[in-house]
Automatic annotation (TrEMBL):
This is RNA polymerase sigma factor, sigma-70 family. GO terms for biological process: DNA-templated transcription initiation. One of its GO terms (molecular function) is sigma factor activity. Residues 18-76 form the RNA polymerase sigma-70 region domain. InterPro entries: RNA_pol_sigma-70-like, RNA_pol_sigma-70_dom, RNA_pol_sigma70_r2, RNA_pol_sigma70_r4_t2, RNA_pol_sigma_r2, RNA_pol_sigma_r3/r4-like, WH-like_DNA-bd_sf. Keywords: Sigma factor, Transcription, Transcription regulation.
Length: 170
């Protein structure tokens, strides 16, 4: 098979490899890169293809092996070897594990600010927070629904103002 014939056969089959590439990478751009790398490898190694065998299966194998090689290379790049006596393998990443202390302090501040609210605002706000609908709050407190909405809005606004130190935090 000539290079031209092989290239034509490769071009006809290449579009059917994209769904498999998407399944492996789960990302459109990475799937395109994997597809391109697979076609390039297939074309540069066309002399290794046995004419009369299944070209599509050969391409799927190249794609799968390329994906596995790239994945292993990525994992090796993110692994450091500790050269101390114990030889620990440490996976590096950009992820940071939070210990929850910041969240605990924030929650204490939120609860403190809610407790400081006037009961006229705190009660409807807490009922809404617990899942009551506006009309349910209005019925239980025997006040108009507009008043309920207004009081909850005022409570939120006051809490937001008093807790603005946390506005830019996660």
């Amino acid at each position: 098979m000539t290079a031209f014939e092989f290239g034509f056969a490769l071009q006809k089959i290449a579009y059917s490899l994209r769904p498999f590439a998407l399944k492996l990478t789960k990302d459109s751009d990475e799937a395109n890169d994997l597809l391109q790398e697979t076609v390039l490898k297939a074309f540069t190694n066309r002399e290794k293809f046995t004419e009369g065998t299944n070209l599509k299966a050969w391409l799927y194998t190249i794609m799968k092996n390329t994906f596995i090689t790239n994945y292993q290379r990525l994992m090796r790049r993110n692994t450091f070897i500790d050269t101390t006596e114990n030889l620990h393998f440490l996976n590096s990443s950009n992820h940071v594990a939070a210990n929850g202390a910041y969240g605990d302090f924030m929650m204490q501040d939120v609860v403190h600010e809610i407790e400081k609210l006037d009961d006229a605002y705190k009660v409807p706000f807490m009922m809404h927070f617990r899942g009551f609908k506006y009309y349910e709050i209005a019925e239980r407190l025997e006040i108009p629904i507009g008043t309920v909405k207004n009081r909850i809005h005022i409570a939120r606004k006051e809490l937001k103002g008093n807790l603005k130190v946390y506005a830019s935090k996660n």
